[in-house]
Amino acid sequence: MIDHLALGAIDLLTSPGDLSSVIVEGLAKASLYLMIATGLTLIFGLMDVINFAHGAFTMYGAYIAAGLMLALVTAGMGFGTVMFIFIVVLALVFVLLAALGTVLEVTLVRRLYEYPPIYQILLTFGIAITLEQFMRMIVEFRNINNGQWNFDWASPRRQTLPSELGDAELLFIQFTNLQLFEIMLGALTAVGIWAFLNKTRYGLFVRAGVEDEEMAKALGINVQRTFTIVFAIGSGIAGAAGVILMWDPLWSTSVPLALDVLLPAFVIVIVGGLGSFKGTVVASLVVGMIDALGTWAFTTGVIQFTGIDELMIFTILVVTLILRPRGLFGVEGMGDHG
Amino acid sequence: MSTETTDVDMANSWPVQYLQDHTVHIAVVLLFVAYPFVYDILVDLFALTAEMVLPEPRTMLTILALGLFAMSFDFISGYTGYLSFGHGAFFGIGAYFVVLGYNGQIPLLPAELPFMMLMLMGALAAALFALVVGLLAFRLSGVYFAMITLGIAEIMYVVSQHWDYLTVDDSDPATGTAAGSPSDVELFEPVIGIPFIDPLNATVHPAFGETTFLGINFGDPVIVTYFAIGSIVLICYFLMQRIIHSPFGRVMIAIRENEQRAKAIGYNVFYYKIGAFMISAFFGAIGGALLIVINGTASPDTTLFFLVTGFALVATIIGGLGTLAGPLFGYIFLEGVEEFLARKASGGGLQPWLQEILPGSVLNASVSGVTVDEGMNAFMTGHGEFYTGIIFVVFVLFVPIGMLGTLRARLGADSVADWATTRIEKFRTESESEAGVEPPASETDPEPESDSD
Known about the structure:
- Chain A is built from 13 helices and two strands; from the N terminus they run ααααααββααααααα.
- Chain A is mainly alpha-helical.
- Chain A has one domain: Orthogonal Bundle (ABC transporter involved in vitamin B12 uptake, BtuC), CATH 1.10.3470.
- In chain B, about 65% of the residues lie in helices and about 5% in strands.
- Chain B is globular.
- Chains A and B meet through helix 5, helix 11 and helix 13 of A and helix 8, helix 14, helix 18 and helix 19 of B.
């Protein structure tokens, strides 16, 4: 077994084509993971709320985007037009999900800030169940009427993903342009959130709120409103991540997407350290790379276990928590009891 | 004069005191025992209406098994404050141990051992596994503890989905093991009871088990299974409840209330936490084994899946976190809602009732191309989770201490049983003083060893 793995590793290191593909794929996966986890980390970092409805927001983003893209994109459109529509849909989904986040924060989440953290987990878990089942209702509603409205939710990807985002080759590196696009979006997210936190007035409020909520309040910062805005931005990013997942062939527009997104997002936030955006970026890279390695090992037959990527993700979680109980960049005391 | 003294002695002897302390327990157990018969009578009288509102005895079986699991979840999460988010792992170990053991797939164990043995061995295996998990996980607290247990359970879930050792006849691991299903060579027939005492044993299976128990013919294997599973759940409940009211349990609560202080007093909280975790895993695994009695098979999605723990959590909150019996009532509520909105084939519910009550013209009235009946299909039937989700949110917001917790707060007692005991005590003392007998103040325990309901 060890020999087998060692041979596989030598194989990979001596083949620049394979190695570079794994790195590109790893970066693409890392970008997706970053987009999934960013909202969660922002919300937790400021508000100590572990948002279990996060995956449901992403799932809603994917469904809304699938519907909109299908309605707006027609067969003869050029690459530029499709990308323009995609960006518009991305923005629209961000706004819609941010609005949903705002409504939920103002009506429900806000009531529980004074309670122990477990009650926020419970509340958002309840919201998640409800949202997921509601989407299931809508999807199944289309299926009644003797299947007249039956709809294949994989079709938006097939029909609206431009062929320009397909396979490409540069020197010996093989990748898809979709992967490059994902890496670009991931980098934009990282830079955008960094700029938001470090260069804007609200970012300052957010950091102040994370540092010392009482003091921030005493200095006249409207922490309540900052909470609402961060919850809205976090939900919006979750939805926007769903838009790109709609195009990615490794994910699917389906109700279980909610849980498929939620669990890796948790892993990344915890591995990176609760409340640390830097940690989230690093953890996304680590998890993305290891995930890509696992996929490579499975497709080349080095490891013959179908669930390898999921297995790797949760193993990373457990091993990290054993070795570094606060995650990579975690702060002492955050997320503990009390 | 001497007769009066004996009366007082009699009234204060320990069995009487014991029964008095457990009045509420006895009442609840009697309600559970009577339920299948009451259900039959009510269905005879009110037909579909009763079927709609009440969970059928078949559903009660699932409620008992999952309720025991939820109680074990509450045991660790509600009493020590450590949220065991991967509790499904222990449930899964209990379930898979029975199935694999029965098929002779566990090394060193002969095939087809009696169910009771497999159940207990599986529970011990789960407790040992909890020891390993606990050694790793109890170095952490809060969210990190929840996440490491979740991570370990998810690893098991992924492995169980893809590991063909867990299946019989090379069937697809994701859809589950084949033990007990008709395609298997031998049907899985668990015998529940006390070994070597024939009348106290029964082969149980809701579909083809025995119909006779203790020499009484109940005419329905579901009822015999219900009593058999119910007795195991009852025993487990009393054991857990006993532990919680022992000094060990008091330390658990101390850890929940203030771990630093418990440590400062001199308790080695680490050992207590691991001990509690192992006990909790033990009973969780028994719940898993009972699920096999009902379903006949184990599959990753019904045992190890994250949402199995998720719904135990929902039941616990609805019933009351830290109330032990609460999660069982929470599950009755959850499954009740689920069945209320189920399709006709599975126990009746709102839709069959409406189909019976409403005239065809209303049912077939169409709103933009969809008939009312189809609309019900889409928005209610089979979508119990949507409504339980909303109910759950309402509970978290407005009844955060759950049904049983609220009842306790209303009665102003530590437990419902406490309240009943004091009421009975008061009533007896009053009637005795009216009769001119001195109240036996010195002999009554000022703090009767009572139990949470």
